[in-house]
Amino acid sequence: MIDLIAQTGLNALYAAAYLSLVAVGLVLIFGVMGIVNFAHGELFMLGAYVVVALYAGGQVPYLAVVAIGLAFVGVVGLLMEWTMFRPLRDNPLGGLVASIGFLMILQALVSMGFGVRMAHVPPFTQDVIAFSDRVRLPVQRLIVIGAAVVLLGALWLFLKRTRFGWALRASAQDREAAALQGISINQTARIAMFIGAALAGVAGALTAPLISVNPHMGHSVIVAAFIVIIVGGVGSLEGAVIAAVAYAFIHTIVTTFWDGVIADIVGLSLMLLVLIVKPTGLFGTADRA
Amino acid sequence: MLLEVNSAAIAYGKVNAVRGISLRVPENGVVTVIGGNGAGKTTTLRAISGLTPLAAGEIRFNGERIDRLPPDRIVARGIAHVPEGRRIFPDMTVEENLRTGAFLRRDRQAAAADLESVFGRFPRLRERRRQLAKTMSGGEQQMLAIGRALMARPKLLLMDEPTMGLAPVMVEEIAAIIRDIKRQGVPVVLVEQNAELALELADYAYVLETGRLALEGPARELRNNDHVRAAYLGL
Amino acid sequence: MFVNFFRSGLSRRRFLSSAATLSGIGVLGATLPRKVFAQDQVVRVGFLAPLTGPVAAWGKPGLDGCMIWAEWINEAGGIDIGGEKHRVEFIPYDDEYDPAKARAGATKLIREDGVKFIMMLGGDPWPGVQPVAERTGMLFSTLLPSDLSPDTTTLIAPAEVHPIYNVTGVEWLAETRPDLKTAVICAQDDALGLPSVATYLAAFEAAGIEMLEAPILFDPATTDFAPVVTRMLARNPQIVCLDTCYADYVHPICEQLFQQGYEGQILSCTADFYEQIIEKTSKEFMEGFVFQFPDFDDPELNADFINFQEPNRFYEEYAQRFPGQWGAVSWEYASIMDLWKAAVEKAGSAEPDAVLAAMTEGGTAPHAFGEARWWGRDLFGIDNALVGNWPVIAIEDGKARIKAFRSIPDWYDKHGELLKKHMAAYNQLWDQRS
Predict the structure, then answer these.
(1) Which among A21, A211, B208, C64 has the fewest CB atoms less than 10 Å away?
(2) ipTM of this complex prediction, to 2 decimal places
(3) A181, A188, A191, A234, best to mutate vs chain B, most B CBs in 10 Å
């Protein structure tokens, strides 16, 4: 039983890792730009396909591919900001609709380029850290956990210690007030979009060898990410991380000890509960919701 | 003339919120814009700060056109804006809010000195410097918003309804602060619904009604104007 | 219209001369031998299955195999229908595993394309097509006999009796590895997963193998299988059964089993693209993996009782044209076509009712894996499933090898009651499904 709990804990830690990356990216974009980026799951998918193209399909070393994936998807985010979100800045519904259109374009492009079936990604490493017979952490998963910690830590430092980070924080709390202090809305939007997209992309690249990679893989991630940011509080980055960890743990534990479908129901119920009791989310601020 | 608004028209969608108004703000003193709800006062300040584009006309600051610049460039020119509803950063501390006001400043030491003088002017802010802004009262938040704007060491200060929703005691404090700012030589454009207070503090006044300039003149004269007394001073 | 034609500048003279030329060509055309034109006698067969999406692995490879079949048949002169040779043409339609789309597809194939026979994967889309079948009397085939019901006499399941053939794997495993006494099973919670679970439960019970816990059903949208696998391994089973999981699930589940240190027996219905599973795990890990679908280059398929045209050559041709794509259904639809062609030539007609009568005459027919009987009244309410032998495959040294052929009717004669009991428990008997 201890073994089962320990292994479940390791499984949950992995799920929390990639979910936090995705959720934080989503919150950053929504918080700073006021846009609900429905294409966020497809940015995750794009990161995975960078791995398919360069690592599975080419000879590029895996960790380099992950870095490329981060940068590439970040640039795609910039493209989205430039072509869709900036022209539609004062039209939140328009931005939302545009992002839905964009996600379909991405899915179609990837399907045309790579086919609709599951893409095969060989493992980067098959090493496993065995704590005991039944408690094992594959190094591939450890990499995901480690990367999430490093990236989120770097993001935290960026937000608290750098000028750009300060600008992001202020913009996320009140965009116009931030503009009135001399913070450039355009530049801040670009930075937020790059970072938000890059986080989703790197999560996809890191998990590509571990999950089923197909053009529709963004769907389940985005649903979980939305639940997480609603529970955590739509403007709050810390809230997103804490909620992602909580959701991943609850979902993994319920799936392991009861049922995967029940776990989904529990997750949704949690979200509904938070919406009823504290609609702005556990850590959210009044405005943004 | 420090700031000139020439025949400005501003639209919200298809509706013209402000049409053909012209204002002049000199290098010192307080200019006030008064009028009822929806008269276009806030719209005008937002246009000066670049938050809302002009549909027609122009705005010049120190002779140069600023009406097509993005808001951050206008702040860089020296115009600071205390927005309607205060709009402080709720999840930042008092001190962080103030520092954000100095975002564009490169002169670290001078900015640090300014921070000290803001705390000197608003001792209550110093007491609460590490407190999250969202936990403060309306009056304290107003002081914070004003302090934040002053941190930019502005050449022109725009203030939008600074006494709105405040108790009479706080209103008096804000009035004292505005007099102080005036004494220190920073020109102010004051938008107010509290016409009595505005006409008392200001040197020159503009009266906006449904987006048009109804009256203008030295504040002293407008205080004795029949229409103003009837419509805005309740006399 | 012709008046405008003249006004637009075309002179009457030019019009008349063009008309003369065209009719001249027409006369000439009527006298030339048939083969010159594309207007050969054609018989069309519809292919209505998922060609895109998660279940495409059980549709698209089948279409690919049919294309090879069609080429071979047409090169050899085509199908003889009542004395006249006909070319075979397949008209594909992607039902995306969705009933509404399948219904639209069936209607189009029948009304616009004039097909004489429609092959489907079946499953969730079938209820959308059923009213069309009943109204038009069109002959349909499915790979999933759970679609059969007494209401639709023109639906046949001539290739596989999914999931019933899964019993052969369990039976063979129990005989060759009597040391394996415990099992767990996981499956996706959908129309494909549930009947298969019931079948495996019956097979395990018949073999005296203990189920350590109730079947673990997971959400079809699952991408991270670590929790499911942790749960399965919690009781140290000797057999892990993957039921009829889609390839998208089999791969990550096997990877997790490998990473979580499982060293026992794995049993599955399919193992599509198993070379990739080996790459994600290891040859040693996959040694002895048992499933139900052979690679057709297997020499065992050259036995006398096999009714499939040159299986090894078919596999080579397929591998050449569609490298790495060989899967469970690559040959099945082609083998259905063999059956259909034989019935058409026997009946002298391609009309659905005549073909069906010819096919089912005598109650037996040549199934790919041997002579088989039309069967299924107990489970499906109608004897429209062609059931005979089925191979059991094990992966040895990285390659799929046929280990044995087992008779499904023989198993059923011994253990049929168990199967009915479990099917009923999962509401999978024909009279339970509405």
Answers:
(1) C64
(2) 0.92
(3) A181
